[in-house]
Amino acid sequence: MNHFQLKPLTIALSLALAIPLVGQAADHPLTGVSSHNSESGVSTLNFVMSLDWNLANPPDKGRDKTYVHDTLKQFARSLYTMTEGKHQVGTVYVYDESQFLKRADIQFLDKLGRASASVSGWKRRSYEIEIFTVDKETEKPESVEALGKTLAHEVGHYSYGLLDEYAEADTKSSEDLGDPLENDTPRNTIMNEHLKFISLSTASDYADKSTQKTAQWRVYQRSAWETMIQDPNKDSETAAGYGGPIRTWFEAFRNLKKAPTADSLKKPTGGDERLQVVYMNEGSLMVLVINQSLTLAQLNAAKQSAKGAVDALNDNAQVAVLAYPDFVANPVQTLVRVGDSRADIQAAINGIVQSAANDPPDQALRAALAIINDADSPANTASTLLLSTSATVDSAVVQAYREKSVAINPIQISTGPARQAQRLSARTQAASSDRVLLGALAEQTSGRYAVANDDSEVAQATAQMVNDVEGEAVAIVNDDGVDQITPSEPFALKTLIGSADEGASLEFSAYWDAGDQVDFSLQTPSGQLINPDQLPPEVRYQRNEDGTGASYEVSPQFAGRTGLWLSTVTARQTTADGVFQDVLAIPSLLGADIATTGGSKDDPRPMYAEISVEGPLPVTQATVRLEIYDEDGNPVQMDLAARDDGVAPDVSANDGAYTVKVADFLKPDREYELVARVANPNNTAQFSTSGRKVQGADTPPVPVGPFLRTASVWVMNETAPEPTPSTSGGGGCVLTPNAPFEPLFPALSLGAFWYLFRRRSR
Prior knowledge:
Layout: E1 32-37, E2 42-51, H1 65-82, E3 87-95, E4 106-109, E5 116-117, E6 129-132, H2 144-158, H3 215-220, H4 224-228, H5 251-254, E7 276-279, E8 284-291, H6 296-312, E9 318-324, E10 332-337, H7 338-350, H8 362-375, E11 381-388, E12 392-394, H9 395-403, E13 407-413, H10 419-431, E14 435-437, H11 438-444, E15 450-452, H12 455-470, E16 475-482, E17 491-497, E18 505-511, E19 518-523, E20 529-530, E21 539-543, E22 549-554, E23 563-571, E24 579-586, E25 591-597, E26 608-614, E27 619-620, E28 623-630, E29 635-642, E30 657-661, E31 671-679, E32 686-687, E33 702-703, E34 708-716, H13 751-755
Parallel strand pairs: 2-3, 2-4, 3-7, 4-6, 8-9, 8-11, 11-13, 13-15
Antiparallel strand pairs: 1-2, 5-6, 9-10, 12-14, 16-24, 17-23, 18-22, 18-24, 19-20, 19-23, 21-22, 25-26, 26-30, 27-32, 28-29, 28-31, 31-34, 32-33
Helix pairs in contact: 1-2, 6-7, 6-12
């Protein structure tokens, strides 16, 4: 992508799902069970893999498509054998150059490291498998046989929620039940030594009490096969965090009346007959669906954002545009290549006019799916972007998108004094009908969801969706917003750029209402002032044609990049609306993401937020804080400490997943935005595999250096009672309104009072 083409649309917040939120890393829409044969009981599973190297120019001549295909062939055979033929591998969609790395099931890395998998990570946000392709002994590419078998072992963790059955040297005790210990009794299974054994454990492996010493037994008190056929809701309390509501109960195992025994294991061979490897090199397909029933200001904002989306897409992307409910006015009714028709598509969007009708988006979404189906191109990544005031869609629409593995990314434009009543009415309607809320629509189709409370936020949210559709390695370093600025009160954002951002371009962007008279400037760590009239050769400036924002791009070659940057928006007259800023690093694999557990009808436990910090190895000993905003952008809690220490609610220590309880602050059936702020103020953070539950030696930890990262997500707490005022944090809250302000880590210790005057424009 040419990042100079568009600037409010290179934002890459990891915005996403809501209601209930389960599903980034492994929530790619192409992941899933593609078919199940009710007669044979065999299911076919599709996976998404991302390589961190260029297949056309691999780091080693042997690490080409044949290498990838042969690895996946061994994986398919091993998975088929270990599941007694109940699971076959179908299509594996392969991206390279780290595209969709943070949403792929399998991260295939040209690095030396210890393979890892998130337990019960299937279709869950921020969960993934990491496979390292460099052999520890020879420092050459690992064999395809070893990699394929390793991948099958990791799928045991990732897809089935299983734990290890080996003994870990030099680990005598652990508070984490999922940690293997040195006095464990290894079982002759693939969850012990995957290069030696091919089957999963059965009841006979644990019939003798003296053998009931493995991580698998401590967590589930059952063998692997007994665990897989059991209803997750019947998992023991010790399985919390691994099993229970988060463990997937696959139909192929759910229909087994009893678990296989050691004597009945058939250990079938083959299983790669259905394997197809699709290299995702044809770009993205996106249908823009725009609601004509918006107010004139909203419609103009939606049209400008849609044009910006077209501007931001790569040349080989394909786009169609539908306007509803007046389908006669549809400007681009078939997919066209952006590089050939960018200006024409934007001109057609300009021609969309208002409509008096206020129909739901169901028909338009069905039409969008039909357009995508007609393209029939498996090497494209397809999605629909919905800009609408509607709050619900028909459940049949959701099912149709799920069957075709196409994501819907809805932006709910929610403005005006009646918006709270409209939200409540929509939720009441959805609860008693076949209507599905837009947040749930996004979650169920592996899409992303956002709420836009004013016209300028439509562009911000659209930008977030575009980068997600493209799957670029973009990290949001910092962001913040204010409700309004005046000539005497500019909006200045301080951002620390550290060694972790070496090699990445930096984008400093600001967003404002098209009618606002503002200027945007940048100050380097050395004090050098940069504005549109004073641009160093390593800096480029772009102001949006529609007057809704501008940005500076700083190249990796800019001298003196590390340190504190100051980006400032100055008003020549008081702004009519909020102003927002963000700072991006492109490309960057060091990022943060937020997932939640609990708070849904399927998982009624109290809601917890889990902030994953990776690069792509886990980052331990970082400082992570969480902010909570309500639907209207008002602060609810501003300084919740998330911890990675293995103490409840955190499940595992030092795995790069920082956990905090949020249920105490969320009212039932209302939407909230969770915003994570990650930093390394004490320079203690490091890339580490010390929290890994995989047999083998850890790689030495590597210091990360100074950095900032931000992530956000929209959620709804379906099961919470009305919260009561709390100052204890309900398990993880640290309120520090009087703590000293650290300018390199903004918004972590300012207290809610400060946010009455300066807060995110939400």
